[in-house]
Write a structure and sequence with these properties.
This protein is of the alpha/beta class. The chain has two domains: about 1-115 and about 265-315, Quinone Oxidoreductase, Chain A, domain 1; about 130-260, NAD(P)-binding Rossmann-like Domain (Rossmann fold, 3-Layer(aba) Sandwich). It is about 30% helix and about 25% strand. It contains nine helices and 15 strands. It has helices at about 40-45, 105-125, 145-155, 170-175, 190-200, 210-220, 250-255, 270-285, 300-305, and strands at about 1-5, 15, 30-35, 65-70, 75-80, 90-95, 100, 135-140, 160-165, 180-185, 205, 230-235, 255-260, 290-295, 310-315. The strands form three sheets. Strands 3, 4, 5, 6, 7, 14 and 15 form a seven-stranded mixed beta sheet that branches. A six-stranded parallel beta sheet has the order 10-9-8-11-12-13, sandwiched between helices. The protein has a two-stranded antiparallel ribbon with strand order 1-2. Helix 2 crosses helix 3 and helix 5 (about 190-200) packs across helix 6 (about 210-220). The chain starts with a strand and ends with a strand. The structure holds NADP nicotinamide-adenine-dinucleotide phosphate (NAP). NADP nicotinamide-adenine-dinucleotide phosphate (NAP) binds next to helix 1, helix 2 and helix 3. GO terms for molecular function: oxidoreductase activity.
């Protein structure tokens, strides 16, 4: 069968022939893959930089997707760490890590949206207990996950959402997706603008980390009116750098808790338990998804651009 194949970490995958996958466990089924998202997590899997990488090559990339099972049902699935990923005509799915989708849902939209939407959905429902009426700041709101976070916060009843990002066009679009206030992260007045807009939020959903996070944390804590009020900062992504110099004063001067949310800090059963409700929300069209389907044979051509494009590329084996 055909698949995307990574043979070295410093080059995009090739469109290649690989062996058919084999079901070995009692819960395994082979699915025909209809759509697989090219998420940042897939890029880091394929360049060996993700914290779960094992240096095992060659590998078929892809961590999740939508496929048709042997009974003809559509399933969204999340793969365990594997070298037999979803960017192939077929893959092996443990049905316990999958959810049956409505027949009429759009596989490309679901494949594009689940990973970025899960980042905030799970963080807010499983890593912390977000309550309707709480307010939030999304740092890095212009990426796919950040755009979803703004919408997820609204679905979960946020009283107000501040969106911070660099791309002005995508920041403007966030007004119609639920962001009350937009703040440029790369402007001369970012510090004062963040302080004015977000100093009193209850929760920060952070996709940025690195230097912008250290600066944002100082701004929020310094300008906070009631420093005794809980502030929960959830580290979800690190597009600006893996390390942030957190000022000690920020932790002492405010009731600030920093937590992370991802594979490991939320258990696999907890993640899987959230799949059906999130799949419902996406299938019902309650989240705006920005997807670009690309045939599997063109995977190598779009790989490098995937870090730069605003939309989520979705690899479609059948196209
Ligand atoms: N923990 C989890 O469960 C989980 C799940 C999904 C994703 N993630 C992580 O979340 C992050 C975002 O994922 P995504 O799907 O939204 O990626 P994406 O769609 O590629 O968006 C990334 C965005 O990051 C922004 N960015 C890049 N460098 C930046 C910098 N130096 N300062 C500020 N913003 C910067 C860019 O926005 P501008 O154009 O505005 O600069 C870009 O649009 C990634 O680190 C990903 O691995 C985590």
């Amino acid at each position: 069968m055909k698949a995307a194949l990574v043979t070295r970490y410093d080059a995009p995958p090739a469109y290649a022939d690989v062996e058919e996958p084999r079901a070995t466990g009692p819960h395994d089924v082979i699915v025909d893959v209809l759509a697989a998202g090219l998420h940042p997590r897939v890029l880091s899997q394929a360049d060996g930089s993700h914290y779960t990488s094992t240096a095992e090559l060659p590998l078929v990339p892809g961590i999740d997707g939508v496929g048709r099972d042997p009974e003809g049902r559509l399933r969204f699935f999340v793969l365990d760490d594997t070298t037999q990923g979803s960017m192939a005509e077929r893959t092996v799915v443990d049905v316990r890590r999958s959810v049956v989708l409505p027949d009429d849902c759009d596989p490309v939209a679901v494949a594009a949206a689940m990973n970025p939407a899960m980042s905030s959905w799970i963080a807010l429902r499983r890593r912390i207990a977000f309550h309707p009426g709480q307010s939030a700041l999304v740092l890095g709101a212009t990426g796919n996950a950040g755009r979803m976070a703004v919408q997820v916060l609204r679905l979960l009843g946020a009283s107000s959402v501040v969106a911070a990002g660099r791309d002005e066009g995508r920041l403007t679009e966030l007004a119609s997706l639920g962001a009350d206030v937009r703040v440029r992260l790369d402007a001369p007045d970012t510090r004062s603008a963040l302080g004015a807009a977000a100093a009193d939020v209850d929760v920060v959903v952070d996709y940025v980390w690195g230097e912008p996070t250290a600066a944002a944390m100082t701004a929020v804590v310094t300008d906070r009116v009631d420093r005794g009020r809980d502030l929960t900062w959830i580290e979800v992504g690190s597009v600006a750098g893996p390390v942030a110099a957190i000022p000690s004063a920020a932790l002492r001067a405010a009731r600030l808790s920093i937590v992370g949310s991802g594979q490991g800090s939320v258990s696999t059963p907890d993640i899987v338990a959230e799949l059906p409700s999130l799949a419902d929300v996406i299938s019902e069209g309650r989240l705006t998804v920005d997807a670009r389907p690309v045939p599997l044979r063109e995977v190598g051509d779009v790989w490098t651009d995937a870090r730069r494009t605003g939309h989520r590329i979705v690899v479609v084996p059948g196209a």
